[in-house]
Amino acid sequence: SSLRRSLQIKNLYPNAVIKPVRGNVLTRLDRLDSGEYSALILAQAGLKRLGLEDRISRVFTHKEMIPAAGQGVIAVQAKKDREFDFIKYINDTNSELCAKAERAFVRELNGGCSSPVAAFAELNGDKIELTGLYADKNITVIRIVSGLSSMGEELGIRLAGQIRGVI
C-alpha cells in the first residue's frame, strides 16, 4: 500500500499491476493462496518471526527496494528530566550513525511516514554510504553519496540537495 514501495516495484517490474492488501500476514497469505494476488511483498523479518520462511520466494536487496529511513532501528524515548545513563551501554553506535544520516536526508526533503522518500545507510569501516530515493508519480530519483561515517548527517543533507536539484 506504500507509494514508496509501489513505485520501486514498478521500476523493477514495469508490467506489474499493484493492488493494496490489508489484514494480518496469515490473512494476506490466504488471499494469495486463493488466487486473488499473484504475489505479495511482505517483511522477511515478520515471516521469519512467524516461522513462515518457506513462504519466501524472493528477497530484495536494499539497492532494489530502498527501505524507509530507520527501518530496523530500535529507539528508546525517555523524559528529558530523568537520568538514563544506562542507555549508553545498550546503544549501538553504528546503528546510530546510520539512523542519523538517513533521518537527515528525509528531514531535508520534508519526508514523513507516508512520503515516497527512502534512505539506507551502510557502514564499512570508517566510511558510510547513503542511498536515497525520492519519488512521485512522474519521477523517481535515486542517488548515492559516501564519506566518513562521522559526517553522516552532513551527507544526508548533501544527498537531499542533489536530489532536490533534479526534481
Q: Keywords, please?
A:
alpha+beta; globular; 16% strand; single chain; 167 residues
Number of helices in the DSSP assignment: 6
Largest beta-sheet characterization = 3 strands, antiparallel
- Which parts are unreliable, with pLDDT below 50 for 5 consecutive residues or more? none
- Content of β-strand: 15-25%
Strand order of the largest sheet: 1-2-3
Q: How widely separated are the two ends?
A: 24 Å
Shape, principal axes of CA atoms: globular
How much helix is in the residues?
25-40%
- Mean pLDDT value: 90
User: Would you tell me the structural class of the helices and strands?
Assistant: alpha+beta
What's the total number of strands? Answer: 3
User: Radius of gyration, rounded?
Assistant: 18 Å
- SSE order in H/E notation? HHHHHEEEH
Question: Explain this structure to me?
Answer:
With 167 residues, the protein is α+β, with helices and mostly antiparallel strands. 35% of the residues lie in helices and 16% in strands. The protein has six helices and three strands. A three-stranded antiparallel β-sheet has the order 1-2-3, with helices on both faces. Helix 5 packs parallel to helix 6. The longest helix is centred in the middle third of the chain and has 16 residues. The chain is globular. The model has no long low-confidence stretch (mean pLDDT 90).
